[in-house]
Design brief:
The chain is built from five helices and two strands. It has 119 residues and is an alpha+beta fold. It has one domain (21-116). It has a two-stranded antiparallel sheet.
C-alpha cells in the first residue's frame, strides 16, 4: 500500500507570504514575460497609411500594483504587477471597432504563456 501524504494549508501563513514586498519581483518578472510576448505579436501599421507606425508596439509598460484585498474583514496589501499599453488607440487594437480589427494582443500573450507552461 502506498503512503499518501496529506497537506493542510494555513490561510494566515499564505496571506502573510503574499503580503510581503518581495512578492512584487516574481509578479513583475511574469508581467515582463507577458509584455515581451505581446510586443513580439503587436501589429505595426503601414508607414504609408499610418501616422504613427509602431506606436502601439512601443507603448507597452509594466507597472507595480499594490491592492488592498479584504481577508477576514481586514484589508491586506497584495503586491503584483500589470502590463499596460499607453498608446491612445490601445483599446481599439485590443477590442476592435468598425475600422480596426480586433487583435487581442494581450489576451493572446497570456494564452501563449499559459500553453507554454501547461496551464
Amino acid at each position: 500500500m502506498a503512503y499518501r501524504s496529506k497537506y493542510t494549508g494555513k490561510y494566515a501563513g499564505l496571506g502573510r507570504m503574499v503580503s510581503r514586498p518581495w512578492m512584487a519581483k516574481p509578479c513583475r518578472d511574469a508581467a515582463v514575460r507577458i509584455m515581451q510576448v505581446a510586443q513580439a505579436d503587436a501589429p505595426v501599421g503601414n508607414p504609408a497609411e499610418d501616422k504613427h507606425p509602431g506606436l502601439y508596439k512601443r507603448s507597452f509598460d509594466v507597472v507595480p500594483v499594490v491592492k488592498n484585498v479584504p481577508f477576514r474583514g481586514k484589508p491586506r496589501q497584495r503586491y503584483g504587477a500589470a502590463v499596460v499599453n499607453t498608446s491612445p488607440h490601445a483599446w481599439r487594437v485590443e477590442k476592435g471597432d468598425g475600422r480596426v480589427p480586433r487583435y487581442a494582443v494581450l489576451q493572446r500573450a497570456i494564452d501563449t504563456l499559459k500553453a507554454a507552461h501547461g496551464g
